[in-house]
Amino acid sequence: MIRPATPDDVPAILRLVRDLAEYERALHEVKATEEDLRTALFGPEPRVFAHVAEHDGEVAGFALWFLSFSTWLGRHGVYLEDLYVDPAVRGHGHGRALLRELARIADERGYGRVEWAVLNWNTPSIGFYESLGARPQDEWTTYRLTGDALTALAREGA
């Protein structure tokens, strides 16, 4: 069963975020708390959304996403920040169902795309995404400004 996340799902979502980060060899980078996620997802002006996959009545996977915008299309899109299904319940269609729900939302609302990033070494996920018809955007390189570099640029000339 796929459904929008509720505030009661936040502990499970954070657990899955941590599991994903451990799989991606970056658990030490997770700083988010339950309160951070609760505020982002359910605060007065949420700008990020989540859907969960249930297996035997328990949250077994999640998709956390937000709106993007394409100036070329002139329309919003969905940016999938995280998609993760507990390894113990993989193979039951939860990942596909989560992506299908995001595709349904994008299609229903007239959004132009659903996009996400995947680590180059994550061949199981790459194979899964390509089996759905998703294609890599090899001509683009993602850049990130964070930490001290972000702070330095923000304060430049102040």
UniProtKB/TrEMBL annotation:
<keyword id="KW-0175">Coiled coil</keyword>
<dbReference type="Pfam" id="PF00583">
    <property type="entry name" value="Acetyltransf_1"/>
</dbReference>
<feature type="coiled-coil region">
    <location>
        <begin position="13"/>
        <end position="40"/>
    </location>
</feature>
<dbReference type="InterPro" id="IPR016181">
    <property type="entry name" value="Acyl_CoA_acyltransferase"/>
</dbReference>
<dbReference type="InterPro" id="IPR000182">
    <property type="entry name" value="GNAT_dom"/>
</dbReference>
<protein>
    <submittedName>
        <fullName>GNAT superfamily N-acetyltransferase</fullName>
    </submittedName>
</protein>
<keyword id="KW-0012">Acyltransferase</keyword>
<dbReference type="InterPro" id="IPR051016">
    <property type="entry name" value="Diverse_Substrate_AcTransf"/>
</dbReference>
<dbReference type="GO" id="GO:0008080">
    <property type="term" value="F:N-acetyltransferase activity"/>
</dbReference>
<comment type="similarity">
    <text>Belongs to the acetyltransferase family.</text>
</comment>
<feature type="domain" description="N-acetyltransferase">
    <location>
        <begin position="1"/>
        <end position="156"/>
    </location>
</feature>
<keyword id="KW-0808">Transferase</keyword>
